[in-house]
Amino acid sequence: MAHHDHPHHASRQDDRTDRPGRPGHHHGHDTAHTGTDWAEVASLLESEAELFTPLYERALGWLAKEVTAPGLVVDAGSGPGVISCLFAEVFEEARIVAADGSAPLLERAAERAARYGVGDRFGTLTGELPGVLDELEYPADLLWASRSVHHLGDQRAALAAYAARLAPGGTLAVMEGGLPARYLPRDIGFGRPGLQARLDAVEADWFTRMRTELPDSVAHTEDWPALLTAAGLRHGRSRTFLLDLPAPAPDRARAHVVATLTRTRDRLAGELDADDRATLDRLLDPADEASVHHRPDVFYLAAHTVHTAVRPV
After folding, report:
1. Which residue among 16, 66, 74, 110 is the one 20 to 30 A from 10 at the CA level?
2. Residue 144 · residue 77 · CB < 8 Å
């Protein structure tokens, strides 16, 4: 793969936080907020990404076999930089640039990089994706987008723009798709069995509405390998990575389940029937021994898929 000679000058505006950008180009499709308490959002995003770190480490290990000695790695839609810093650990000589629409999240990313001792080769780029990547000083050898492309109205155009920012031989890696997470048995002992499947259906409808309401929204068949090929890239590969935390779930996973169900109840309770709303309320009641705060059968199982393709030399 291409290697550039100036990995410490990745953008003209490294660490810049003075440009307003539309927030929301970061991990998790339920975090596209405006007028938000960014410290709270950053904390939630960090907690989720840290929970998923074993999955990300396996994905990055796979990428490291595909991409050798990159000079510049760009994390597009980086949020608070958990994965960006993992890239800095995996590629010890690379310059890392975290790009996001939220300056507060990028401040957290820069602070994290400093704590991890990689701040000297870590930069940030604040602004709307994909356009802000035009400010990169030279092309990327690896451009990563984790569950952020679906926040962009025209996903096909976004991938083409990302591909244009790659060096010849550079790799675009997109984490999209996989399977909905599971964390409870089908029958939890109260309410109607199959709650999570019904929550999935409500979430899918919400996700479709979110996509249609994005600026310049365009509907494309979400065949990610085909979209990467349409962007002019070649040698596509896909691989799915698991996060498998069996019951009894560790505290961090349990807290994530609580946060996930709380957001679902707050955002989508009106789309559930009365029985499911009552079940959710009971699952979230810390005083109830059958809640996810206490029950021993809480687990966490998720599958995320990474699609890669290469810009022709």
Report:
1. 66
2. no
Q: Locate all alpha helices (DSSP H) within 67-194, ordered by sequence.
A: 82-90, 103-115, 155-164
Higher pLDDT residue, 80 or 3? 80
The answer to whether the CB of 112 falls within 8 A of the CB of 47 is no
Structure tokens at 247: 């019951």
Domain ranges for the chain, please list them: 38-218+235-311
Enter the DSSP assignment of 289: T
Question: Pick from 72, 236, 69: which is nearest to 142 by CA?
Answer: 72
Strand-strand pairing, 300-310 and 234-245 = antiparallel
Instruction: Give whole-number Cα distances, 88 to 62, 120, 189, 200, in Å.
Output: 15, 11, 45, 34
Condensed to tens digits (0 to 9), the pLDDT of residues 130-147 reads 999 999 999 999 999 999
Residue 58: its pLDDT value, please? 98
Distance CA 265, CA 203 (A): 11
Domain boundaries 38-218+235-311, CATH class: alpha beta
pLDDT in tens, 236-261: 999 999 999 999 999 999 999 999 99
The answer to pTM > 0.85 is yes
Residue 140 is inside which H or E element, if any?
Answer: strand 140-146
Q: Categorize the per-residue pLDDT at 44 as very low, low, confident or very high, splitting at 50, 70 and 90.
A: confident
